[in-house]
Write a structure and sequence with these properties.
By secondary structure, this protein is mainly α. 50% of the residues lie in helices and 2% in strands. The protein is globular, with a radius of gyration of 27 Å.
Length: 749
């Protein structure tokens, strides 16, 4: 106990010292990477931004995280992060940057927390290097520059880690409860993803605390019970509320938060089973890319890859979007194929794995000589914590059936911690000529440089040969110099330390800047020279690949651009429809993605065109295919509204979101996010029409899985509005509901 008290006194003393001046530039770097130019993103992720617009309008919408102002359906995630975003928008006004700001600040806060957590045990230089590694891990700023959840989730888990470390140091049970309660809060951000750190929390507390096993079990049991209570608190309230008094729980099939948590946002992520059980017919799991997540649908709408080669059979085979385990090396959404080396494959390695070889050598050095039965030093105990965070998460991403690249931010804290702690430990072993351990530093540098050369090699056309050759040559030279000097008695110079820093972090730093240099993607954030496409990986061959957001591809029904089949979406290998992707509810035309009626593209799905170049300083609307409002349609609907609650109804959220953001008026996404939620029935729709709640319906021919009966009834009982009354002819306005679909009017007496 005296030892514990001395540690607390030491902590209070250290807190009174001056700010670490070396930390200041690191924080400034993090601030630049996370904040610079976020004001150019007007819509951010439009699906979530529309929810914030709706949540600003009433406490009912705020509490349930309603997607639309009418309280028809919620978004597909718990509300805590969106509560924070809504508060930010209330304070600073509703803007794209105001909903991004909390995540950007969380990204900076994570850098500071990593510094604090590592510095105390491993030393100030370890803390500095860990903080810098966290700041420069490419996926960290890429995610933090958006209104996606993951940056705030990681920050919350690091706060919980700080509480746990304090609980061990002070031997106070209250901090244990606080740490696990914070994980419960994180659950209400992104559900089961928050629980990925639990192995680290349990292992560390058991190993690090000097109390009896009886108390350990009692304390952990109580803390876990509290965590579970906090986790399901919102879910229990929502699921206990009558369905007619709250919005439908978006992306669930049974209108249940708990089903959403443990199914769609839980086990299904591991298995890849994203089939829509609520649709009239169950389709293959991998064919449900539109319904897999809020990010997935927008991938389909804005990030399908295209080929400029006239040889379709050769080009498309290398550009197909396939499920994990398929023939495509990049896997579904560039997440590679499952296996032990998945994190070193294209698409993932350039987001998170730049320092992984060095981390592996660091782990060897930090655990060298450790006996299973102990005793363990504080450094070894905390190293065990970071290892118990790193390994389970890495295993998950190595085998998971469905995730997106930006989820990899979950690996950033343990990688940064090991990079900082390992750098100091390996340097010390090297200087002390500590036998075989002294070879870990040059070995780690050489293998890390080799991996970085491998990561950059597919981007030679974008970044040139010089940086690739430079990193490789510098890594080899530095490793050789360290090997030659190893037996010398004279001390190492600071120049070698600076060279180590350059080799390890130069290219991650460049990659971290790519969302600023090339433009980011708020729907599917990823770092790299093609970061604006939202599909980090080898550069696209599209001629307009540097255009912001959509790689120069055209919207459905657009008269411009090439209508070649090279732009069609490809399904996972093994699909029963001949290798072509089916939209939920659609089966015609050999399974190709169907454009809206009236399209001239022969049944091929073409993607939206962004007219903003990377050099453009104007605001960009990166909200998806329908990221701009059709002003003529909006004027028509507004003028002819006779008191209806909803401005119009449409199949899914992609068409609805921009109009909610622009007007703040209710727009009904009949099938929820993807159009496949079993929310609406014909009888319920009839009742809504008779009550005067809705009379206009925009049908694009997409996203109608699970509501085909409703769509059929609308078409059979409505009056089609001539397109000349609402269709805009300019290309910019065609990126909302326009000539790509049909507008219907229904009035029932």
């Amino acid at each position: 106990m005296k030892h514990m008290n001395s540690e607390v006194k030491e902590e209070r003393t250290s807190n009174k010292k001056r700010i670490d001046l070396f930390l200041v530039p690191i924080v400034l770097i993090a601030a630049f990477l996370n904040l610079f130019k976020i004001w150019t993103d007007e819509y951010a992720n439009a699906y979530y931004t529309a929810a914030v617009k709706s949540m600003l309008q009433s406490f009912h919408n705020f509490f349930y995280a309603s997607f639309d102002p009418g309280g028809y359906v919620t978004i597909d995630k718990p509300p805590v992060v969106f509560w924070i975003q809504t508060i930010s928008a209330k304070i600073f006004g509703f803007h794209g940057w105001s909903v991004i700001l909390p995540q950007a600040l969380a990204g900076i806060g994570s850098v500071l927390l990593v510094y604090v957590l590592v510095k105390r045990t491993f030393g100030v230089w370890a803390g500095r290097f860990a903080a810098l590694a966290m700041a420069l891990t490419p996926i960290v700023p890429a995610v933090s520059r958006t209104n996606n959840i993951d940056s705030m989730l990681v920050f919350t888990l690091l706060v919980a880690t700080w509480m746990l470390f304090r609980a061990v140091r002070t031997a106070k049970f209250g901090w244990v409860l606080a740490a696990f309660a914070m994980i419960g809060v994180a659950f209400n951000m992104k559900m089961l993803q928050a629980y990925m750190v639990l192995p680290a929390f349990y292992v560390f507390y058991v190993v690090a605390t000097k109390i009896t096993w009886k108390k350990k079990i009692a304390f952990l049991t109580t803390a876990t019970a509290l965590m579970l209570a906090v986790s399901v608190s919102w879910a229990v309230v929502v699921d206990s509320t009558s369905a007619d008094k709250r919005p439908y729980m978006g992306s669930s099939q049974t209108n249940s938060v708990l089903e959403l948590a443990f199914g769609y946002n839980g086990i299904n992520r591991l298995t890849g089973n994203t089939s829509v059980t609520g649709s009239s017919h169950k389709q293959p799991a991998q064919a449900q890319q539109q319904t897999a997540s809020s990010e997935t649908k927008q991938t389909s709408n804005s990030n399908a890859e295209s080929s400029q080669s006239s040889n379709q059979s050769k080009s498309s085979s290398s550009k197909k979007m396939q499920a994990p385990g398929g023939g495509n090396q990049n896997g579904m959404f560039n997440t590679g194929n499952p296996g032990p080396f998945r994190l070193f494959q294209k698409g993932l390695s350039d987001q998170i794995s730049w320092l992984l070889p060095f981390v592996i050598f660091s782990i060897v050095g930090l655990f060298a000589g450790v006996k299973f039965k102990g005793p363990y030093t504080t450094k070894q105990k905390e190293s065990l914590f970071w290892l118990a965070w790193l390994l389970p998460v890495a295993v998950f991403f190595s085998i998971a059936g469905f995730f997106h690249q930006y989820y990899l931010i979950m690996l950033a804290p343990p990688i940064a911690a090991f990079a900082g702690a390992g750098a100091v430990a390996l340097w010390s072993m090297y200087k002390q000529r500590n036998g075989w351990k002294s070879w870990l530093l040059p070995g780690g540098i050489l293998t890390t440089a080799a991996l970085q050369v491998y990561i950059m090699s597919p981007y030679v056309s974008s970044i040139g040969v010089a940086p690739i050759a430079g990193v490789g040559a510098l890594g080899v030279i530095l490793a050789l110099v360290l090997a030659v000097r190893k037996e010398r008695k004279n001390s190492l110079t600071n120049y070698l330390g600076a060279a180590v820093l350059v080799v390890l972090l130069a290219m991650p730093a460049y990659w971290a800047m790519t969302p600023i240099i090339y433009g980011g993607n708020s729907m599917l954030p990823a770092a790299g020279p093609d970061s604006s496409s939202g599909m980090g990986g080898p550069p696209s061959t599209a001629t307009n690949s540097k255009q912001s957001g959509f790689n120069g591809m055209q919207p459905p029904g657009s008269s411009s651009g090439n209508s070649s089949s090279n732009n069609q979406m490809q399904p996972p290998s093994g699909s029963s429809n001949g290798g072509q992707l089916q939209m939920p509810g659609g089966s015609s035309n050999n399974g190709q993605m169907q454009p809206p009626s009236g399209s001239s593209n022969s049944g091929q799905m073409q993607m939206p065109n962004s007219t903003l170049s990377k050099a453009s300083s104007s605001k960009r609307k990166s909200g998806g295919m329908n990221a701009e409002v059709n002003k003529k349609l909006l004027n028509y609907l507004t003028k002819n509204n006779t008191g209806e609650k909803y401005l119009f109804a449409t199949t899914d959220s992609t068409s609805a979101a921009p109009y909610i953001i622009e007007t703040g008026k209710p727009v009904m996404a009949m099938g929820g996010f993807s159009g496949s939620d079993p929310i609406l029935t014909v009888s319920k729709l009839k009742a809504m029409i008779k009550k005067g709640e809705v009379k206009y319906f925009y049908l694009s021919g997409m996203g109608k899985g699970g509501q085909s009966d409703v769509i059929t009834w609308i078409k059979e009982n409505s009056k089609e509005i001539p397109s000349s009354k609402w269709q805009s002819t300019s290309l910019s306005s065609q990126q909302g509901p326009s000539g790509n679909g049909t507008l219907y009017e229904i009035t029932l007496k």
